[in-house]
Amino acid sequence: MPPFVLYRIGTIDAEYWYGIERMDGYNESITGKGEHSMNILQTRNLTKYYGKEPLLVKALDGINMEIEQGSFTAIVGRSGSGKSTLLHMLGGLDCPTGGSVMVDGQELSGLDSNELTIFRRRKIGFVFQNFNLMPNLNIYDNIVLPVELDGRSADDKYLKEIVTVWVLRTN
């Protein structure tokens, strides 16, 4: 099970809300008990630029953020403000122009493409706006596919809970 999942949770007047949520039980155990929490995700001077002067677009310009284990974070802004770009950087789906992204203690820029693929498969779960599911697979098989590609067995009890919630929310 990935330590956190990136997902879009709703739309309000052209503002998009995204969430980053721990998925491994830390939500109850870290907050409110005086325990020292650590960052599951952080960026330092994160930038993403497109094009060249005089048409340079600064989608992200010097983003510094820290997200602690157990927290729920919403990224909010107008259309075109860089929310999706930021999520792509945080999830290792795109490379920044500058700065750094560290996920669960691992600097993403230090990974080659194969290592990054394995890291994403093991550590990050994605739910895209259009879901990006394999059309010839059912929900269960779509969820299990990355686990099986990693040579591991799925936790059937946990997956049945996910499928039940998914079906209830989409009906």
How do the strands and helices of this protein lay out in sequence?
Blueprint: E1 4-12, E2 15-22, H1 26-29, E3 39-50, E4 57-68, E5 72-75, H2 83-90, E6 98-103, E7 106-107, H3 113-123, E8 124-127, H4 139-149, H5 156-170
Parallel strand pairs: 1-8
Antiparallel strand pairs: 1-2, 2-5, 3-4, 3-6, 6-7
Order of helices and strands: EEHEEEHEEHEHH
The total beta strand count reads 8
> Structural class, please?
alpha+beta
How many helices? 5
Could you tell me the radius of gyration in angstroms?
17 Å
Range of helix content? 25-40%
Biggest sheet layout = 4 strands, mixed
> What do the pLDDT scores average to?
76
Which band does the percent of strand residues land in?
25-35%
Protein model, in words:
This protein has 171 residues and is of the alpha+beta class. It has five helices and eight strands; from the N terminus they run ββαβββαββαβαα. It has helices at 26-29, 83-90, 113-123, 139-149, 156-170; strands spanning 4-12, 15-22, 39-50, 57-68, 72-75, 98-103, 106-107, 124-127. The strands form two sheets. Strands 5-2-1-8 form a four-stranded mixed β-sheet. A hairpin with a 2-residue loop joins strand 6 (98-103) and strand 7 (106-107). It is globular. Mean pLDDT is 76; it is low at 7-36.
Briefly say what this structure is.
The protein is of the alpha+beta class and 171 residues long. The chain has five helices and eight strands; from the N terminus they run ββαβββαββαβαα.
